[in-house]
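seq as requested:
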Amino acid sequence: MFSSAPANWDEPELLDLAGAPVPHYGTGSLADLLPTLAAGQGVPGLAAGIAELTPADRNCVFLVDGMGWEQIKAHPQEAPYLASLLAGSRGGTGLPITSGFPATTATSLASVGTGLPPARHGLPGYAVRNPASGELMNQLRWQPWTQPKTWQPYPTVFQLADAAGVHTAQVSAPGFQSTPLTKIALSGGTFHGRMTGEERMDLAAIQLAAGERSLVYTYYSELDGAGHRHGVDSDVWRGQLMHVDRLVQRLAEQLPPRTALYVTADHGMVDVPFDEDSRIDFDEDWELGAGVALLGGEGRARHVYAVPGAEADVLTVWREVLGDRFWIASREEALELGWFGAPGECDDRVLGRIGDVVAAAHADVAITASRNEPNESALVGMHGSMTAAEQLVPLLEIRS
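struct tokens:
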């Protein structure tokens, strides 16, 4: 319907916060995957959140960094094997699951490994404020150094499964073995480092066969890197997707009996045009910077930390300037709306890590920081927000 009221061209219509597509925590998010699989293997203390999945004695999760649901659907020629599995995603429903907010690697891997939403595991973004020091803490690079077990104290699902007698293993690039993110999100059982994707697929199959009950995780990061550097529709990215397609089929053909293989991702990705309207440079915008002490998060999912006393003013200005292209919420609104987990479940230690203002991109735009974040600001492909291209991830299933 068209409104008979006159249009106000000076004030673009603000995005409705209630219309933001909130992740499906508890029923269909990345945080629900491993608890569902491990509960089906008899690991105590865990519940099956994704009701459509059927238990298996042996489970393998192959996480492809940056391979969103929308990207697979858009490239059936490059990924024919993956495309053939779309109809059986999420237990045969043909549906995706959601990444969680923000849709970014550190947050998503912590959600996968702990089985908890960001409001509880405490990695609610790419870079967030450490309330103890007042500094920004990059949770992917783990800089500056912060005690891992203090930052994220919960056990991983792998640790719980290992303690319950399930053969548990991670197969990934050797460089990830000793990183703090691996320790707090993916540790438990044994870690096996292999350089090539083919080696990882072969070893994952061996590890699955090593136990009567097995839980194996393997990971591939190069697709994400291609998207960041060249864009998600570049020839380089398409070539990487073709390679992933072959890797998945290679692993599927080696599965031991009574195995379920799940292919998923930590997030999808969008390309952000290189123009002033699409890339808003915080470092050059005095209006957005007024009253802001720290800018955290990343281009499409920003945590904004205000100078004490300026929180309401910063929220007002950010809504006035960006509210037609970003969902702009206060910390309290974002938590109540369920952006970081179910309302009311945020741990006290996590509250101060979430911005006083949280900005999630709706359009193909980003808030860059050319001086303070030159590398991140130069990326072609970005992610973090709650759009379908970023938030929806596959849960492709192959059984033996």
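Residues 235-252 form the longest helix (18 residues).
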